[in-house]
Every structure is written in C-alpha cells, then in structure tokens.
Amino acid sequence: MHKMRGQRKLDHLRLVQTLEDGPGNTGFNDIHFIHNCLPELNSREINTDCTFCGKTFPFPLMINAITGGVEEGEKVNRSLAGAARHLGIPMAVGSQAAALEAEETYSTYQVVRKENPDGFIIANLSPGVSPENALTAVEMIRADALQLHLNIPQEAMMPRGEGDSFFRGYLDNIRRIAESVSVPVIVKEVGFGIAREEALRLLDTGIAALDIGGKGGTNFIRVEGERSHPEEGEPFFHWGIPTAVSLVEVVEAVDFKLEIVASGGIRSGLDIARVLSLGAGIAGVAGPLVRCYYGEGEESIIKYLSALEKQLRQVMLMQGAKDIYQLRKRPLVILGETGQWLERRGIRVNHFALRG
Description:
Layout: H1 2-18, E1 31-33, E2 50-52, E3 55-57, E4 61-63, H2 71-87, E5 91-92, H3 97-101, H4 107-115, E6 121-125, H5 131-140, E7 145-150, H6 152-157, H7 170-180, E8 185-189, H8 196-202, E9 209-211, H9 220-227, H10 230-233, H11 243-254, E10 259-263, H12 269-278, E11 282-285, H13 287-319, E12 332-334, H14 336-344, H15 350-353
Parallel strand pairs: 4-11, 5-6, 6-7, 7-8, 8-9, 9-10, 10-11
Antiparallel strand pairs: 1-12, 2-3
Helix pairs in contact: 1-9, 1-13, 2-4, 2-13, 5-7, 8-11, 11-14, 12-13
C-alpha cells in the first residue's frame, strides 16, 4: 500500500506540471470591481496584513497542500517551506497518510518545520482517520493547525484498488478530531467546492475554518483519469461548484462564524482581491507552485508569490482600499453564469453591487 501511495504522489507531481486548469471555470471572470477614479489613497498606505487562526500574516495567501511521503516530495516541500518563510505566510503539507503507514517517510513532512522553524505549518489528513492519528500528524511537524481534506470525487476516480470507498461517519469523526487536537481544524475541499448545505452541517462540529476548494483550478478527476483510463473520467471533467459560487454560498451560510479560505484556481492578485471582497479571509494556492518548483525552484516560487502580492496591492490602490477588509465594502457586479447560479440558489447578488 505504501509503495502504491508513493507512486500516486509522484504521478500527481508529474501531471500537475503538464495539465491545464479546469476545464471547468472558477467563475472569477463574472466578478467585476467598479473602478474608483478617486481612491484618495497613496500606495504606501496600503496594508495587506490578515488574521487567520489567531495569527497575523503580512499577506492574505497560504501555500496549500501539495505533497510529501516520497523523496521527491521532500525536495518540493523544502523549497515551499523556504518560500513560506521568506514571505511570512502559512503553509500546509500534503496528506500525511503515507507517514501513518511508514515512519521512514516522516522526514518528507518534517523538512517543512526544519526549513521554517517559526512558521505557521498546517498538517493534513483525511476526515476518516482516528483522532489518535490526527494527533500524530500534528505532533509530527509541530503543526499550528490541521487540514482535513474532502476529496470524494478524486477517490471515486482512482484506479481499482487505490481509492477509498467508505465515507459514512465523516461528519461525526470531524467533530471527534476537532475535540481531540489542540490546534484549529480546517475542513478543506480539494477542487469540487463546498455548498451552502454542507457548510451549515459543518458549522457546529467545532472546526475553525472552511477551505472551499472550488472548481476551476487543478482538476483531480482529470489527474486520476490520466493515471489510468482518461476516457472514464471525461464525463465528469466539469463536476463541482465553481470557486466564486462556492465562496458566496459558504459566506452566506456561515455568516463569518467560521474563517474562510478561498482556493481553487487562484491565479492572480486580482483573483485574491475578488475572493477577499466576496468574504474570504485568506486565499490558497497550490498547483502553480509545483510548476514554479520544476522551473527554477524556490526562487521561482518566491517570484510568483511576490507578483501576486504586487497585483493585490495594485487592485487595492485602484479601489481605494487601505486594508483587505475595506475590499468587502467596495461594490462588485456579479454577472454571467455565476450570477445566474447564485440567483437560482436564492442568493440575491444585487447587494454586492450597491455596497460602498
């Protein structure tokens, strides 16, 4: 099982380098800021600080779960941790299931803490693990938080003998894990979105945050299809809830009772500004950083993330938003399929356009 899991992780790293996002859309192109021609703001006044899980960070972006469990993953994690340290942002490791099976893989995750001893590091496991294993994952890397990833469509598309098929009891187990660990728990989708109904069910489990992981970025149905039989996954390539839709649904459902991470196709500082304005507290990015690593390593990762920060500042200046929370006061026009979807779901979008 450990050998099979290791090969899968290597396949994922290989395929994420070559496969394009989607083909489903994030919905971000339906989200429009109204230009402010009188921002009454100097660029030096802009503050991009954010608070997440009780900590303050200089930039509202986190490096989301990518890898671990294999030697190649250790190399990637070392560079990602170096970039997170350089920018002072949080970082999640990939699923630690491999380490629960084989202790010799611990170092592929622990390298993150070694490279970033004072950083905000997030452990990662399936919601199906025992509370004891969740504690092990947290202690393994002295994690500051724990991600529990929801990836049912991905599991369903894995080759025979690999994917999990037992998901009953997840909700109660999430509650037990949240009660057992001493760090904030984040429930995360991996690219298919969280709907209003499930957000409400998760609201009273004791978790601290939801990472919506919407459709439009790395498509793990497509990734798993490429590993075995691409034609089997093709009918489901558009499966999921677009990131913009999922974010609005979750914000409306939890009403800021939980912290919200927006991930799934975040590819620019404008995307970050959009999700912050829609109600997210922080954004998450993963796939592009794999491509950066295999380009020019850590230097390329830092360059990419720094460009996102610069673009966010440019949007804030053009919007007259001194800090990221003022972005939530700026008017947004939501059009196209995103607007239609939300209206069909009973979420009126006109109030976004009338803010300010």
